[in-house]
Amino acid sequence: MIASFCLAVAVLLQIGVNFANDYSDGIRGTDAQRVGPARLTASGRVPAKRVLAVALVFFGLAALAGLAIVIRTEQWWMLAVGAACILAGWFYTGGRRPYGYAGLGEVFVFVFFGLVATLGTTWVQAFQLTQEAWIGAVIAGLLACAVLVANNLRDIDQDRAVGKRTLSVLIGRTGSRVLFTLLIVVAFLLVALLAVFYPIAWLTMLALLAALPAVLIVWTYRLPKELIIALALTSFTALLVAGGLYWAFVW
Questions:
Q1: Helices 48-73 and 2-28, axial angle in degrees (round to 10)
Q2: I need a surface site. Which of 115, 126, 175, 212 has the fewest CB within 10 A?
Q3: Which string of DSSP letters, residue by residue, matches 73-139?
Q4: Which residues contact 120 (CB under 8 A, 6 or more apart)?
Q5: CA angle, corner 18, sides to 3 and 231, nearest 5?
Q6: What is the dihedral of CA 114, 73, 243, 210, to 10 degrees?
Q7: What is the pLDDT tens value at each position of the chain, 251 positions in all?
Q8: How far is 23 from 53, CA to CA, in rounded Å?
Q9: In the chain, what is the greatest distance between 2 CA atoms, to the nearest angstrom?
Q10: For the domain 104-251, what is the CATH code?
């Protein structure tokens, strides 16, 4: 029951963040020359206020799901954690000084998509945080960061032109390629560490079949649109790793 609500919070927040980014980047003109799939606000297909309204609705639904968890577990202090998650989702590209425009996107993604999401989900169900939970949280955060790096590397020229100083803009293409590779490598080294104690976790290494092509594309791409494939492969890698570790832990 609680696990289902945790999943709902994660999905609803992700949708809310996506719409919030669509709105904020759209009204700033950041997405005017977007390489990836067209966004609603920038394309003019949907009024900006409507996109904002949808973002707020999903943030609200995530808050309600989170409130249900807090009431059920009586962990009232987690209301502050939930509020922080929503604020982090909004100020990624929203507000006067969005942190996503100052090279801090990866830091917040690691904290909220990795540590907070994984450890929070573990705490409300087990009321303890084991070493496995911490390592799993770090792995989730690293792979989430890899997804963001692939995305920002794709948009590096456009972001630089409009003054969006993502980490990829700050460290350049080569730096972004090295960072992406390190994120993938360290994540799988941690998976190998867990596999020493949970042998089934070795099967999670099959996710390298998606991760390695993504790394290859990042290092050899010629056109930004090719990174859309790397982005999809990295996202799929994160899903496979999460599923593999879940299987290993519950077996």
A1: 160
A2: 126
A3: HT-TTHHHHHHHHHHHHHHTT-SSS-GGGBT-HHHHHIIIIIIIHHHHHHHHHHSS--HHHHHHHHH
A4: 6, 78, 81
A5: 90
A6: -20
A7: 899 999 999 999 999 999 999 999 888 877 666 666 667 887 788 899 999 999 999 999 999 999 999 999 999 999 999 999 999 999 999 988 999 999 999 999 999 999 999 999 999 999 999 999 999 999 999 999 999 999 999 999 989 988 889 999 999 999 999 999 999 999 999 999 999 999 999 999 999 999 999 999 999 999 999 999 999 999 999 999 999 999 999 88
A8: 10
A9: 53
A10: 1.20.120
Integer CA distances (angstroms), 158 to 20, 34, 144, 174, 191, in order: 19, 7, 22, 17, 35
Which amino acid is it at 203?
Answer: L
How many C-beta neighbours within 10 Å does residue 127 have?
9
Q: How far apart are CA 132 and CA 249, in angstroms?
A: 9
Identify which of 247, 246, 180 has the alpha carbon closest to the alpha carbon of residue 219.
180
DSSP string across 29-78 = TTTTT-SSSPPHHHHTSS-HHHHHHHHHHHHHHHHHHHHHHHHHHT-TTH
Quote the pTM value: 0.93
C-alpha to C-alpha distances, 180 to 110, 212, 214, nearest whole angstrom: 13, 11, 10
Tokens of 217: 């594309």
Q: Are 86 and 63 in contact (CB under 8 A)?
A: yes
Amino acid (1-letter code) at residue 97: R
